[in-house]
Amino acid sequence: MNAQSGEQKMQWAIRHMPILSGIAEQFEQEQPFAGLNVVIALHLEAKTANLAYVMQRGGAHVAITASNPITTQDDVAEALAARGVTVFAKRGETAAEYKEYFDRVLATQPNLLIDDGGDLVNAVHFSHPELLPAIIGACEETTTGVIRDRALARSGNLAFPVIGVNEGLCKHLFDNRFGTGQSAWDGILRTTNLNIAGKVVVVAGYGWVGRGVALRARGLGAQVIVTEVDPIKAVEAHMDGYQVMPMLEAAPLGEFFVTCTGDTRVITAPHFNAMKDGAILCNAGHFDVEVDVHCLQDHDPEHHEVRHGIEEYAWNDKRLYVLGEGRLVNLACADGHPVEIMDLTFALQALSAEYLVNHRESLPHELIGVPEAIDDMASRAFLDSRRLRIDALTDEQKAYLGSY
Ligand code: ADE
User: Fold this and answer.
1) What ligand 1 atom has the least distance to the C-alpha of 336?
2) What's the chain's average pLDDT?
3) Closest residue (by CA) to atom 10 of ligand 1?
4) Ligand 1 centroid from CA 24, angstroms
5) pTM score > 0.85 for this model?
6) Which domains does the chain have, with CATH numbers?
7) For residue 191, what are the contacts with CB-CB under 8 A and spacing of at least 6?
């Protein structure tokens, strides 16, 4: 694999990202980021490379690193560097390299940040506070990052506005649900090559990601069990037709487990004790803390890879299998979300970054939502790209609605 295969992957992605292509043409004319340094920390695969390139076409100097140590596609990183973007990322970074690459991209003196999971925003606040005065703002991709940035804002320490792109309707309704719904199964299917129909799949968490993963598991013919801590979401899962029970009760029944909670230690030793021989565990949440992989490693220091991306752990008299080291299965074991979904998500990222620049004097140092006009524009562009048309309110209907 080399820059040429990375370039091919990028061109395939670009061909299927018409919304971002339209935005790139507009950016090229208007140069909204002229003279600005943009630093990106995202999962570095072909769709992300396109976003970086679009920002560059808008006049930015772009430096990019990875938001996860094992999700970079090295050939794409090479291809992006060949297009003039500053890249510090490789697949399989050590913890020290992960930090070093953050330091190196941040050495480009950023004015705008595009973050996924909150590590970049945290790095400038706690490791490089000297950079804060030059930063106009940040865009955050994911639920976990939004939670971390909101906590920073609540503590009064957030030094610039952050747009929670994840809060955009065109993000979480489609990317978290249908994006992860497809890409998590893509990772599981590619890695295991096993049949899903008729199997028992346990989905932990029924937020947008869990809803998508459960929906597509059912579509593949699985019997789906949902575990939850939130009573409302548990009712929703029940009414959506899934079995609902605590993880300890689901543990002996499940053949596949997919964690989608964003929280820590969701599947731990008592669950491993209760599981069947051969149970397959993976995670679709941002951090690798949902399945207690450290506990499995301590229990079986001899654990080993039995197939690419599948680690086998002896647990008393049985074997348990973990996909992609318990990191995001869709990116560790596949190519991430489908291209068209990331077209919508990254359209929101690009337009939110432009919004930060255009409104730099007036935005509060808080976590703010995606402006409605951006969601509206992105959804209409998506419909156009699919040649779908919808109705418009008549004047009579507008007057009727306005009369309440
Ligand atoms: N590709 C790039 N970023 C991604 C993300 N956050 N989730 C899934 N696929 C992606």
Assistant:
1) 9
2) 97
3) 336
4) 20
5) yes
6) 3-167+337-385 (3.40.50.1480), 178-327 (3.40.50.720)
7) 307, 308, 309, 310, 323, 324, 329, 333
